[in-house]
Amino acid sequence: MEKKTAIIAGVTIAVVIAIVGIGAYYATLKRPAPPATPTVEITYTGCGPMPMLLATGKIDGYMAWQPFIAVAEEAKIGKLVSYSQDLPPKGKWKDHPCCCIFVRDDLVERNPQLIADFCALMTVADEYVREHPDEAAEVAADWLVGGGSMKYGEIIVSSVEVEKKSIPTIKFVTEPSDEWVKGNDLFLDVQRDLGYITERLKATGIEESHALLFNFTPYREAKEMLERGEIITPPVEEGTIGIGYQPSDHHTQLWVACDKWEYFRDNYGMYLKETKPKEEYEFVVNNESVARIRLTRTTAGPDMMTLVAGNTLQIGLVGVPPAIITVDKGTPGKIIHPIHTEGSGLIVTKDAPCERGNWTSFIEWVKKRHEEGRPVKIATPLRGSIQDVQIKYALKESGIETVEV
């Protein structure tokens, strides 16, 4: 009996030792050492859910367009690390291109005067936004959320107050200046570096790239008409023209053109006549209806460009990087002119140990979280958007790798 007990005890001790040993072994597997290079996780979502995701701790920050930068600070759920123009490397992104007018080649070839007239309308609408920022803020708030409050769970903020903070941070311009063109060249180089450009634009020189990307003729004609004070009536377009926009106040000029139509009719003889609120319009020039317009709201630039590529949309108000990618993939269309520059930023949770406007403190936080095995998670709009391109490039310049999750 004693012998059996000793044997059982010995077996028990051996089993316990084995279990402890196996447990220790698997413990080493559960917590692998973090990668040698600090890493930030990039997750993709529409800008609309970002404030809620931040407030509920699902993400640590987001890189987004306005007004979602203003939303975070107005709601006190996050703080600004950097506006897009201040991202590293220093000075590289000042006055950077953002959204532009992109038009399919077949529409420009079929009715160039119509596109010139539309460019003229967008030009004077941009001017209206610059000169009447508070009115523009009210228009933007209405188009985004019906002019009411912006609600994110228990967080409620005034959409008009958010827009009054947001609109002044966006530079509404339409001139395709030499500096603006160079900014597009920069985006093309960065997208090549990130591996987003793989086809038509992969190895093109400056002149060939510009020939594929740009057609400034409609804008030049629009500018000449405005200087003369005479808008030319174009041939009537038989089909409906689809125009895409995004849920961002970057496209306030389009909404102003729709809502303040009497101003543009009385001062320029061209306007958008509403037939179905926020969706269907007639483009009227010199008292003649020259085109039916259908507006489509998309989540972000990449999905809009998919619709342009399939000819569901013929015109897009879209960020430059998605436009460049769609040209690279073979879509027959070109950038006609800018509608604004700048207007995005990086927000982090209010509890992050980062100073407002201090990129260095953000990178220190990223490294600390990396050492703890808890990489910082940043949300951006769809892959290839301006915000995605800029945050990845800025992190790379700071020695931080990114991984998409």
Structure, briefly:
This protein is of the alpha/beta class and 405 residues long. 45% of the residues lie in helices and 21% in strands.
Shape: globular
Helix content: 40-55%
Strand coverage percent: 15-25%
Q: How many domains comprise the coordinates?
A: 2
User: Cα distance, first to last residue?
Assistant: 61 Å
Report what the structure shows.
This protein is of the alpha/beta class and 405 residues long. The protein folds into two domains: 39-94 and 344-404, no CATH class; 99-338, no CATH class. The chain is built from 16 helices and 15 strands. It has helices spanning 2-30, 50-55, 68-74, 105-110, 112-131, 133-145, 159-166, 178-193, 206-213, 217-228, 252-259, 261-268, 301-309, 320-328, 359-371, 386-397, and strands spanning 39-44, 61-65, 78-83, 99-104, 149-152, 155-158, 240-245, 270-276, 280-285, 288-297, 315-319, 333-338, 344-349, 377-380, 401-404. It has a seven-stranded mixed β-sheet with strand order 8-9-10-7-11-4-12, with helices on both faces. It has a six-stranded mixed β-sheet with strand order 3-13-2-14-1-15, with helices on both faces. The longest helix is centred in the N-terminal third of the chain and has 29 residues, at 2-30. The protein is globular, with a radius of gyration of 26 Å. The model is unreliable at 1-31 (pLDDT under 50).
